[in-house]
């Protein structure tokens, strides 16, 4: 069964990098001591790898950044766990396609390699990056992404502000535009706050669920799709076309 | 000489569609009575054409929407003036590529056909749509756009909010990511307000200038590029590599 921890933001306001969701990451890694890091969403690869290293040292793990590997595919094949960092989603996906890593990452995750994603790293775990907030600064060969979960994510989701005079499209309107052209459900992940950070996607024999705590997840999908919002602290999405029961019912 | 009026938002808070910049549109059209409308940024083409028709009736012009034309290319060849409406920029550009209209629109604008763009319609007048805020809901054959001006626009530009705890990238940071991968200057167009709406780009023998009134335009480009901010009411961008003088100096 695939194991994914897909978080919206890597840093909470005022905190250090990955600090606010450190506990969830420790739980998730289940003792993996070496984590392969994918820094391609940012431009400064060395700087990004150093920042990730510091964060993982705090929890007793070591980062190997894939950009320093002699062979990217061999690095993926041998990884204990994968962390795909945030930044520009389109740049990140472009690198994943051009390095030929879409297939090997997908296969290793299906075989059980833990996948930790933050922001852009959560976006590329989905069916496509068509619900990213990022500018398409690079033209990737395809918008299709890793497809590790059967839906799309919109990180840093923000509710419409009824008092706004900005006149740009709201996030909700943008997701509605996505659904004018595409079918997959979209999970809007609000930015996590200290102490209540993380979502967990477990696509498996019982179906695919996104579990989000506190003020985290909003389901934005056409009304015809099944979705639940159990309570403030727990919201679930049953993916389209699946008939398994909610594990919390 | 090309004549373009590229505006950030088609509607000001609390106003009717195109109402706040009606005066500038009248000046710009210089008596054109029939305007060809491109509604492809939105899903509901008929509804959008009706909305545009109402707005242009107020100023004594008639809208013909291109989606009702028997032959799109013939419609472009015969148009007095063009209005490309806002919506999803990626969808709009996809339609322009797939209908083969990039070349004929570019040629007609270079020959003097007035080009009025709002939001997505302003984005596609630029070198590329790589600085759009919109979700890439469709994969276009290319991000390259009409190239009617030698820079990119970011509509609905908003300044970073120092008090924000949102943790998503600021607009400024996104444009910086664009410049990590691309060279062209980017003009951030703030949303216009009632009475002070419009920008005017005139690429011609004297160079290319963006003129923006009131709280309209911010130049976001690498420091190495030439730019001026003359005063609050008038901001100019001299495009990269050009040495013509500011027409207002």
Sequence-ordered SSE layout with sheet pairings:
The structure is a homodimer of 249-residue chains.
Chain A: E1 4-7, H1 22-29, E2 34-38, H2 45-58, E3 62-65, H3 72-77, E4 82-84, H4 89-98, H5 102-110, E5 115-118, H6 120-123, E6 152-154, H7 171-181, E7 186-189, E8 199-201, E9 210-212, E10 217-220, E11 227-231, E12 234-237
Parallel strand pairs in A: 1-5, 2-3, 2-4, 4-5, 6-7
Antiparallel strand pairs in A: 1-8, 7-10, 8-9, 11-12
Task: Provide a short characterization of the protein structure.
Two copies of one chain form a homodimer. Chain A is of the alpha/beta class and 249 residues long.
Description:
- The structure is a homodimer of 249-residue chains.
- Chain A has 249 residues and is an alpha/beta fold.
- Chain A has a single domain (4-242), classed as 3-Layer(aba) Sandwich (Rossmann fold), CATH 3.40.50.880.
- Helix content of chain A is 25%, strand content 18%.
- Chain A has helices spanning 22-29, 45-58, 72-77, 89-98, 102-110, 120-123, 171-181, and strands at 4-7, 34-38, 62-65, 82-84, 115-118, 152-154, 186-189, 199-201, 210-212, 217-220, 227-231, 234-237.
- In chain A, the strands form 3 sheets. In chain A, strands 3-2-4-5-1-8-9 form a 7-stranded mixed sheet.
- The A-B interface holds A 9, 11-14, 43, 87-88, 90-91, 129-139, 142-143, 155-156, 158, 165-169, 174-175, 177-178, 180-182, 191, 193 and B 9, 11-14, 43, 87-88, 90-91, 129-139, 142-143, 155-156, 158, 165-169, 174-175, 177-178, 180-182, 191, 193.
Structural class of chain A: alpha/beta
* Mean residue pLDDT of chain A: 77
Q: Any idea of the CATH topology of chain A?
A: Rossmann fold
- What top-tier CATH class of chain A fits best? Alpha Beta
Give, in spatial order, the strands making up the sheet with the most strands of chain A: 3-2-4-5-1-8-9
Give the terminus-to-terminus CA distance of chain A: 21 Å
Calculate Rg of chain A over CA atoms. Answer: 17 Å
Q: Mind summarizing the main beta sheet of chain A?
A: 7 strands, mixed
Number of domains of chain A: 1
Which word captures the global form of chain A?
Answer: globular
Strand tally of chain A, please? 12
CATH architecture of chain A: 3-Layer(aba) Sandwich
Output the CATH homologous superfamily of chain A: Class I glutamine amidotransferase (GATase) domain
Report the sheet-strand fraction of chain A. 15-25%
Unreliable stretches covering 5 or more consecutive residues of chain A: 193-249
H/E topology pattern of chain A: EHEHEHEHHEHEHEEEEEE
Helix content of chain A: 10-25%
Q: Count of helices of chain A?
A: 7
| Greatest chain-chain contact | A-B, 40 and 40 residues
């Amino acid at each position: 069964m695939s194991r994914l921890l897909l978080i919206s933001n890597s840093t909470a306001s005022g905190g250090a990098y990955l600090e606010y969701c450190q506990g969830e990451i420790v739980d998730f890694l289940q003792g993996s001591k070496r984590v392969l890091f994918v820094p391609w969403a940012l431009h400064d690869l060395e700087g990004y790898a150093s920042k990730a290293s510091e964060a993982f040292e705090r929890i007793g793990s070591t980062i190997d950044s894939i950009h320093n590997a002699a062979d990217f595919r061999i690095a993926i094949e041998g990884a204990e766990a994968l962390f795909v960092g945030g930044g520009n989603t389109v740049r990140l996906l472009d690198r994943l396609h051009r390095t030929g890593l879409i297939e090997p990452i997908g296969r290793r995750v299906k075989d059980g390699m833990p996948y930790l994603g933050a922001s852009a790293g959560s976006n590329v775990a989905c069916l496509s990056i068509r619900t990213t907030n990022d500018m398409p600064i690079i033209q990737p060969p395809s918008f299709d992404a890793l497809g590790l979960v059967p839906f799309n994510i919109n990180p840093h989701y923000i509710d419409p502000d009824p008092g706004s005079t900005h006149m740009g499209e709201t996030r909700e309107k943008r997701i509605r535009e996505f659904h004018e052209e595409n079918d997959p459900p979209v999970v809007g992940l609000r930015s996590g706050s200290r102490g209540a950070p993380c979502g967990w996607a477990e696509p498996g024999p019982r179906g695919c669920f996104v579990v989000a705590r506190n003020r985290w997840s909003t389901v934005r999908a056409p009304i015809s799709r099944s979705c639940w919002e159990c309570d403030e602290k727990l919201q679930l999405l049953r993916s389209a076309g699946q008939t398994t029961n909610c594990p919390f019912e």
